[in-house]
Specification:
α1 packs across α8. The protein starts with a strand and ends in a 7-residue tail after the last helix. The chain has 296 residues and is of the alpha/beta class. α2 links the parallel β8 and β9. The structure holds guanosine-5'-diphosphate (GDP), magnesium ion (MG) and zinc ion.
């Protein structure tokens, strides 16, 4: 297994030196994109670079491994934020998928920006639905930007959000991630198309994320082939903490271990009834609570 390590502008192909200690993190891979490592250059040769250890991570994202259930897959580390690309049409991203993504990332205490792409394809009705979604998520603390990556609309705002940060870009295949990366970084020429993970088709290899430098201190991580984050085990009593609008109310529920489904004196239920918590959000909460597959 070879890793790309950049040091002072120079790219090294590196291998792991022996076994790395994993800091008690139950993951299948010891190193991930975004990691800062100590590199050892044996006899000064570029081809002999060894990763000696991984420096402490400020945060990380782990997703459920498809192979071993007990261990997750370390997806990326040292992130300032995630950016979820959404499209209302071609393909349609569902509210359930958005909420599931947001909960997964909240669990790792990483902020998320929502990017609504393919603005050029929306008719008036779809545009108005999109505006409602944006109002809702903005009110929850998730900045929203609408763009057309293809026509270059809204890219200045995207740049503002990215500036000086390391951002993990995610979203369904076909929403326009590669198109946006190409637009932000002329000269990159990533392959785009309806089926972006073409190269992985029919194989069972894990797809690794890749980091791009937008400028000196702005980095974007593309996650091709990752269809959903795959929520790590989140306990029922923990789930509402990852809905910001519920988190703010939790201490007011009558029962300490309230599930916010039927209990008397539940402030969350009250807020849903009064329309202060969006019905769609509560629906997402219930389906996650009941372990329903909400990935589409
Ligand atoms: N109409 C329209 N098409 C777009 C836009 N952004 C991307 N596409 C198209 O959507 C398809 C998938 O884009 P791609 O960047 O490969 O998506 P990815 O799978 O998320 O990387 C391509 O045919 C793109 O040309 C957009 O803003 N508007
Ligand atoms: Mg792509
Ligand atoms: Zn409650």
């Amino acid at each position: 297994m070879w890793y790309d390590v950049v040091s002072e502008g120079q790219l090294y192909k590196a291998r792991l030196r022996g076994k790395l200690r994993l800091d008690g993190l139950k993951v299948t891979n010891p190193v991930a994109v975004g990691d800062k490592v100590r590199l050892h250059l044996a006899s000064g040769e570029e081809s002999n670079a060894l990763i000696e250890n991984v420096l402490p991570r400020s945060n990380y994202l782990v997703r459920k491994s498809t192979h071993k259930n007990a261990h997750g897959q370390l997806l990326a580390s040292n992130l300032d934020q995630c950016m979820l690309m959404i499209t209302l049409v071609y393909p349609r991203t569902s509210i359930g998928f958005i909420d599931r993504f947001l909960v997964s990332v909240e669990a790792f205490r990483i902020p998320t920006v929502l990017l609504f792409n393919k603005l050029d394809l929306l008719d008036e009705e779809a545009r108005s639905i999109q505006r409602d979604w944006m109002l809702l998520y903005e009110s929850l603390g998730y900045p929203c930007v609408e763009v057309s990556a293809l026509e270059g609309v809204g890219l200045a705002k995207v740049r503002e959000h990215l500036q000086g940060k390391t951002t993990l870009l995610s979203g369904h295949s076909g929403v326009g991630k590669s198109t946006m990366l190409n637009a932000l970084m002329p000269g990159l020429h990533l392959r785009t198309g309806e089926v972006s993970d073409f190269a992985q088709k029919g194989t069972h290899t894990t797809t690794f994320a890749e980091m791009f430098d937008v400028d000196l201190d702005t980095r974007l991580i593309d996650t091709p082939g990752i269809k959903e984050l795959g929520i790590m085990e989140i306990g029922e009593e923990e789930l509402s903490h990852y809905f910001p609008e519920m988190r703010a109310l939790l201490s007011q529920c009558k029962f300490y271990n309230c599930s916010h489904t039927h209990e008397p004196g539940c402030v969350v239920l009250e807020s849903v009834a009064q329309g202060n918590i969006a019905a769609t959000r509560y629906q997402s909460y219930l389906s996650m609570l009941h372990g329903e597959d909400n990935r589409k």
